[in-house]
Amino acid sequence: MNYPLYIRSAPTENELKFHYMVHTSLDVVDEKISAMGKALVDQRELYLGLLYPTEDYKVYGYVTNSKVKFVMVVDSSNTALRDNEIRSMFRKLHNSYTDVMCNPFYNPGDRIQSRAFDSMVTSMMIQVC
Amino acid sequence: MEAAAGGGCGSGPPLLLSEGEQQCYSELFARCAAAGAAGGGPGSGPPEAARAVPSAATAAAGPVADLFRASQLPAETLHQITELCGAKRVGYFGPTQFYIALKLIAAAQSGLPVRIESIKCELPLPRFLMSKTDAEIRFGNPTELHGTKVQIPYLITEKNTFKRMDDEDKQQETQSPTMSPLASPPSSPPHYQRVPLSHAYGKLRSNTEQMHPAPYEARQPLVQPEGPSSGAPGTKPPRHQASLIRSFSVEREPQDNNSNYPDEPWRITEEQREYYVNQFRSLQPDPSSFISGSVAKNFFTKSKLSIPELSYIWELSDADCDGALTLPEFCAAFHLIVARKNGYPLPEGLPPTLQTEYLQAAFPKPKRECALFDSYSESMPANQQPRDLNRMEKLSVKDMADFPVPTQDVTSDDKQGLKSTVDEALPKDVSEDPATSKDSNSLKARPRSRSYSSTSIEEAMKRGEDPPTPPPRPQKTHSRASSLDLNKVFQPSVPATKSGLLPPPPALPPRPCPSQISHLRVNSKRSAQRRPPTQLPNYGDFRLQKQSEQAPEAEIHPQLNRAPSQAAESSPAKKDIPYSQPPSKPIRRKFRPENPATENQDTSTAVGGPATAAAVKPHAAVQKQSSKQKKAIQTAIRKNKEANAVLARLNSELQQQLKEVHQERIALENQLEQLRPVTVL
């Protein structure tokens, strides 16, 4: 159902907390998807924006047309991150994900083990942190 | 990367380096390479580069020239040495060339003539007077003449790697002494692996080509004119054919005309290129088009590499990430697989020599004739029909040692997909049923497979190819007009011989069959003849329904024939009775109860010998038709009567229930009346 294809945290302590936040945010994503209405599926924007803010973190969501959800948790203190930067990050994630999909040896639903994907995510996280 | 020292001295022209020499030479090479900044160890090059610099670098000409000059040999001698070692030929100083050159220098310094044979002997270390102090120290030590040759580790490693390549170890072992001239520092095991690479590849090279198999054998082309090393090439061709056929692990020949030495294991040689191109063409006739992901996946999965590795190789080679492989991408992927099979760790990034632009530039598309690939061309017909895929599988079975008979699950898909469209007449067992879904997938994925002709499949089967699983029933629904349930009946397992049964005559509902049988039996009684086999189709369905699918008609025939014939024999006068009561005769259980007991008893008692179980004469067919109709009517009447009876019973039961319910209702209303205290006015 809703299991992570890929999950990564930058500072590796408290990883579980991040995992938990991501998991709970899935509900919010689902809510946003359904709230947009069935008729608007085509026009539904992929970028969902800020899902919900907590005191420490902001959670952004993005969902593809195949219902693959990308969730990003960033530190609230990182004010330098603007919306369009988040959008571009999601776009890069999406592109990398499609590259992973193009690999015939990748079975959809498997965990993503693509090194290219890893390196892209790493570079993004380094850039942000 | 130089393989360790070969086995013995004297058989071929091996270059044996003692340990001291090895260290010395590798040091020198490292220095030259480093000095020349020859790109020691490209980022994407083999990791061995990190472990032993000399192996992964080309000694730049400058430092090498300096070194040679420092040996204080006359310029002519140096020229000679350079030529002999092969640097001139390949255009650069690889480790092989360098080591040979050093050895030649040592020989020259010892006063021996500069010739290849000189290298065979144990020589003192070459002496170089160089400005670098350490060089002096090192080179000034000529006293190392260890007799110990590093044979064992190399041979062992070589064996391991050769095993991987599935070639006869013996041949390789015997060949290795002749083909492994250089001893590399024992500390670099990966280099050992490289030797088998080139050796194995050398074996794969054709006699006609006579390209030097390895840098180690760089001498050989030079030597061939001289003739000393004819033994080694001589042994190669016979093995070549066999190993070419067998070995999928074609190793690229290092440094053929390459200037970028550090990428040696990632460089595709001409022969390899040809091989890859041929394989590509077997998958995709148009070399300028591309192979779809699923096709490539099936193909590469045969290499028995793990899926993550294959996934990673794909990631490396599919540069544009479009899910399809163009020819350069395919060659790169193939090459990476080959390298991986031979023990090379996968690079972090696509080596420059494997990149699309490089491959396209280095190897123009036009293919070259290669005697090498005769074996391939035999099994790969020139017609690039989709059945090449089938042949490719056979090819892979035969030709690729590392792609042994493909695993059932992998190629069953292929084969089923390929043959499914053909083999409607060859339904297979139930186990194929789950594969049919795969078939539909594979069919969609490879529309080419639909053009398979049955002949090709049969040919393929006749060739002795062993399909891992026989093709399943291709379609669940026949194009022919036939009832679906019959398909299901036939689907589980109907031997090909029963293909005649496949289309039961649509015009004949199952029911009349028994009547036919009875009628025929009547006829047969009269004529005491067997039913023609043509009756089979009529009885096919119900017979199958009743009995196991394996039950041949013959069983039924005797039974059927037996019964009527017995009845006929026993009661010829009852011809009319059987006729009017067709259900009595057939084995059909439905009708049995309705049969007059006498008839059954007669038949059952009379069942003892098949007696006349001859086929019914064709003339019975004519009578059959009219009787068919009558039987049809009679059976219909019977059915309706039964139905009526059933319905009548049902009706009566329901009426009964209705009455009861009515009565209950009345009773309840009475109670209600009584309970109501005051009647409503």
List keywords for this structure.
heterodimer, A: 129 residues, alpha+beta, Beta-Lactamase, 3 helices, globular, B: mainly alpha, two-stranded antiparallel ribbon, 30 helices, 1% strand, EH_dom (chain B), metal-binding (chain B), coiled coil (chain B)
What does this structure look like?
- The complex is a heterodimer of chains A (129) and B (681).
- Chain A contains 3 helices and 3 strands, in the order αβββαα.
- Chain A is α+β, with helices and mostly antiparallel strands.
- Chain A has a single domain, classed as Beta-Lactamase, CATH 3.30.450.70.
- In chain A, strands 1-2-3 form a 3-stranded antiparallel beta sheet.
- The longest helix of chain A has 21 residues.
- The mean pLDDT of chain A is 81.
- In chain B, 49% of the residues are buried.
- In chain B, strands 1-2 form a two-stranded antiparallel sheet.
- The N terminus of chain B is likely disordered.
- In chain B, helix 21 crosses helix 22.
- The chains are: A alpha+beta (129), B mainly alpha (681).
Gist of the model:
The complex is a heterodimer of chains A (129) and B (681). Chain A is α+β, with helices and mostly antiparallel strands and 129 residues long. Chain A has a single domain, classed as Beta-Lactamase, CATH 3.30.450.70.
Average pLDDT number of chain B: 58
Structural class by sheet pairing and helices of chain A: alpha+beta
Strand order of the largest sheet of chain B: 1-2
Query: Beta-strand percentage of chain B?
Result: under 5%
Radius of gyration of chain A: 14 Å
List the quaternary state of the chains: heterodimer
Summed up, the helix count of chain B is 30
Summed up, the helix count of chain A is 3
Supply the CATH class of chain A: Alpha Beta
At CATH's second level, what is the architecture of chain A? 2-Layer Sandwich
| Tally of separate domains of chain A | 1
CA-based shape of chain B: elongated
Broad shape of chain A: globular
Q: Give the total of beta strands of chain B.
A: 2
Major sheet description of chain B: 2 strands, antiparallel
Mean pLDDT of chain A: 81
What is the radius of gyration of chain B? Answer: 41 Å
Strand order of the largest sheet of chain A: 1-2-3
Helix content of chain B: 40-55%
Instruction: Tell me the number of strands of chain A.
Output: 3
Question: Which residues of chain A sit in consecutive blocks of at least 5 with pLDDT less than 50?
Answer: none
